Amino acid sequence: MTSRLFIPCDAGALAVGAEEVAAAMDKTASGRGLDVEIVRTGSRGLYWLEPMVEVETPAGRVAFGPVAQGDAESVLEAAVTGATHPLRLGLTEEIPWLKRQTRLTFARCGVAASSVSTMSAPRPAAPPTSSGTTKIALKFIRTMPSSAASATATGSSLQAARAKRPCAR
Questions:
Q1: For 58-111, how does the pLDDT look when each residue is reduced to its tens digit (9 = 90+)?
Q2: Angle, nearest 10°, between helix axes 72-81 and 18-32?
């Protein structure tokens, strides 16, 4: 069974060694013959715990942090076996700082569908540029879920899609 590890790759996490941690985790997993998928993500904003490594489990994501390059082997062992570790923070969603948050950013984003009302901005006329070409105006669409259940489903699918995206450099 593949174990999924989530390691941030935003500027804050990279500044404190997330790239080195990801490389060490990958090297350790390869050396031990473990089937591990490393998914690069953005930070959750707990910069005092970065790099924070999350491990997907049936109960939810389990967080470890702050993880240093030298901790990679022991954290990976604890992640794969479920053993205790001094850097284990517990379920990510149960960390008090995160638990108090109401996360709305992606709950209100989504793809326009028949059950979702849309509003679009009018498309302004595009003036010619100095090179004689015409600028293309962007059409902005804001979607609004018809129910809280729809909002949760939409947010989850967007987060899943973003989690699969490799770290941009």
A1: 999 999 999 999 999 999 999 888 899 999 999 999 999 888 887 777 666 665
A2: 60
Cβ-contact 37, 53 below 8 angstroms = no
Residue pair 6/39 in contact (Cβ under 8 Å)? The answer is yes
Domains of the chain as residue ranges with CATH: 3-99 (3.40.30.10), 117-163 (no CATH)
73 in helix, strand or coil? helix
Q: Of 54, 58, 59, 60, which Cα lies nearest the Cα of 89?
A: 54
Give pLDDT tens digits for 37-66: 999 999 888 899 999 999 999 999 999 999
Q: What is the dihedral of CA 79, 82, 87, 158, to 10 degrees?
A: 50
38 vs 22: CA distance, rounded Å: 7
Q: Which residue has the tokens 């489990």?
A: 57
Q: Which two tokens stand for residue 97?
A: 């700082």
Instruction: State the Cα–Cα distance between residues 40 and 167, nearest whole angstrom.
Output: 5
Contacts of 139 (CB under 8 A, 6+ apart): 120, 121, 123
Query: Two tokens at 143?
Result: 């979607």
SS3 4: strand
- C-alpha angle 82-161-98 in degrees, rounded to nearest 5: 55
